[in-house]
Amino acid sequence: MVTTEFLENANEHDNLSRLAKPQGCPVLRERHRLARNRVVSLKREFKRHYFRNSIQDAKGDSAKLWKLLKKYIKNNSDMDKILSIHDKDSPLDIANELNTYFAHIGKNLADEI
């Protein structure tokens, strides 16, 4: 779903990139930075929209949903942690495993930075 807004921002970013780097002009570099940020923001918005719609389409089809989740979650070790809940027998064990995962994810991400 590429929109004209995205194409215009991407073209502006490309043009400013070609101009700003060789000239080293602070004004051009700032305009380039802002254009780049707009393009990145639009890409993220498109991805969220795509996955939100894909997940809605996959309702009721668990295989399709897991395929989407694997595609969305980039880090395989995180996917392994999530998939480890299938080894649990009771709903309480599954809930505890998910709680532990989500309770520690913020700290783990902060440690990686």
Protein described:
The chain has 113 residues and is mainly α. The chain folds into 2 domains: 1-72, no CATH class; 74-113. It has 5 helices and no strands. Helix 1 runs antiparallel to helix 2. The model has no long low-confidence stretch (mean pLDDT 79).
Characteristics of this structure?
elongated; mainly alpha; 113 residues; 2 domains
Produce the secondary structure layout.
Blueprint: H1 4-23, H2 26-57, H3 62-72, H4 76-83, H5 91-112
Helix pairs in contact: 1-2
Provide a quick synopsis of the model.
With 113 residues, the protein is mainly alpha-helical. It is built from 5 helices and no strands. Helix 1 runs antiparallel to helix 2.
- Report the end-to-end length measured between terminal Cα atoms: 32 Å
Overall mean pLDDT: 79
Per DSSP, the total helix count is: 5
Low-confidence stretches: none
Shape: elongated
- Portion of residues in helices? over 70%
Count of the domains: 2
Radius of gyration: 20 Å
Strand residue content: under 5%
